[in-house]
Amino acid sequence: MTKRQRTDGSTAASAEAPSQGGASCVDTSKTPTKMQHPLGIKPWGNCFNDMDKGIKPCRPQGLGRFDGLPDTVLHGIFSCLDAPTLGRTAAASRAWYVFSYHDEFWRPLVLLQFGGTFVPQATWRETYIATSHPAFHCPSDQLARVQVQGFYSDLLFQPFYCAQRPSALLSTASMQVDTIPRVDGATLSVEAFKAQFERPNLPVILTNVVTEWPAWTRWDDAYLKRTCGATTFYAGGFNMTIEQYINYSRTLRDDQPLFIFDRHFATTVPPLAADYTVPAFFQDDLFKLLGPDRRPAFRWLIYGPEGSGSSFHIDPNATCAWNAVLRGTKKWIMFPPEVVPPGVHPSTDGGEVSTPVSLMEWFVTFYAQIKSKTPVHLEGTCRAGEMIFVPRGWWHLVLNTEESLAITQNYVSPSNLDHVLSFLKDKPDQVSGIDEERRPHLYAEFRAALEATHPELLVPFDEAQKKKKATWASLVQTDTAANNAPFSFGF
């Protein structure tokens, strides 16, 4: 589970030349001072420069007694206001205007009131008006934009900064780093894949596999809209049709864009499932023994705009995964199981993970740290027509550097079976992808299916379990003997 603060409760070709230098992630020619916030908000560091120009801060007079409160407290107060109150507050002063128009307060009002059926506009505030009161909506290009002078806030500026296109914030050098191996999947044998990547538990990007699917040539906007029709897909806690989602994702920019991460697409729209085939490298999936209705959730349709993606996480239930890109590009940053990425704070048992709220916030804050040390991570770009193998236990962050459409599946192979069995047995409370009441029993159910069909695969696991018990018993026996030994000064 990933813990991230959000007021609305939502949560998801040929290789370029490698670049291994200590390049900074952020393009310093495009710093916050170079970007103009639509409301005129600037980071606090600009205050002193502006005062030298005769520009006075508007907060003391505009906020009155509230000026003594930190922005975090004011943010909490404004997040409790409804739409009419926010609208009225904007007329009080320039400072109140800035807070009242801040888009983070309007996003939850839209999503909680209208779900996925809103009418997207350039901002969440305009979206609220266009959806709730269409007669009062004014097209974005006809709105009079008020630029407030003398308003400074790091807290309110950061979402705008992190909502910029990745190409506007990330340096060219950081975008070209490519240390994940890339192999031609058309010539790689299954056994070679297992020997070089799956068994050693190492990532790889495979080319010339996705391009053989019907989906590669079919999945354009027209086909998706026609095939999916009125079927809705899960996007950040809300349901939208493909047409609604495309409309939203190409209209409204956000630092945490909603993106489709739908586990039911193969059953709700069967033609989509028929448009691709699981590559031979990944067909040895032992969870299939449980049957399609009993196995944990394992496949997802992923569709997101530029700047969307997933923060650092480890794939569920100790499984491996593959992710195939049909449109767009995805930048991957991966850390081996024994290395926790900077800015990521897992709980002791690994059941919960705290990460920065937005993907770009992690890049801006922490990316430089991984470049200043001896590299222990891998990173690269998976392009349209390519797929990436994600080994068990690897931490990974994925950023869509273009609008991207992909399919991903998790699987259990003989190579990682022991780890999956151990996870199901020792951490039933962390099992995901099935109903909560089934979690404590999945180990026994999966083991029974293996005993009936592949008993030989259980031998290594059972032997390892016996050794673990013998080691523990030996330690307990040694400790007991030491406690029962008579006391002596040893002279």
Structure explained in plain terms:
The chain is of the alpha+beta class and 491 residues long. The chain has 2 domains: 45-135 and 145-163, Monooxygenase, CATH 1.20.1280; 172-444, Jelly Rolls. 35% of the residues lie in helices and 15% in strands. The chain is built from 20 helices and 16 strands. It has helices at residues 47-52, 59-63, 71-78, 83-89, 94-101, 103-114, 124-132, 154-162, 166-169, 172-176, 190-198, 214-218, 221-228, 242-249, 265-268, 270-274, 359-371, 417-426, 442-453, 459-484, and strands spanning 2-3, 182-184, 204-207, 232-235, 238-241, 260-262, 299-304, 309-313, 320-327, 329-335, 345-346, 353-354, 378-383, 387-390, 395-400, 404-411. The strands form 4 sheets. Strands 2-3-14-9-16-7-6 form a 7-stranded mixed beta sheet, with no helix packed on it. The chain has a 4-stranded antiparallel beta sheet with strand order 8-15-10-13, with no helix packed on it. Strands 1-12-11 form a 3-stranded mixed beta sheet, with no helix packed on it. Strand 4 and strand 5 (238-241) form a beta hairpin. InterPro entries: Cupin_8, F-box-like_dom_sf, F-box_dom, JmjC_dom, JMJD6_ArgDemeth/LysHydrox.
**Secondary structure: helix percent:** 25-40%
Number of strands: 16
By CATH, the architecture of the largest domain is named Sandwich
Radius of gyration in whole Å, from Cα?
Answer: 26 Å
Biggest sheet overview: 7 strands, mixed
What distinguishing features does this structure have?
491 residues, alpha+beta, Monooxygenase, Jelly Rolls, seven-stranded mixed beta sheet, 20 helices, globular, disordered N terminus
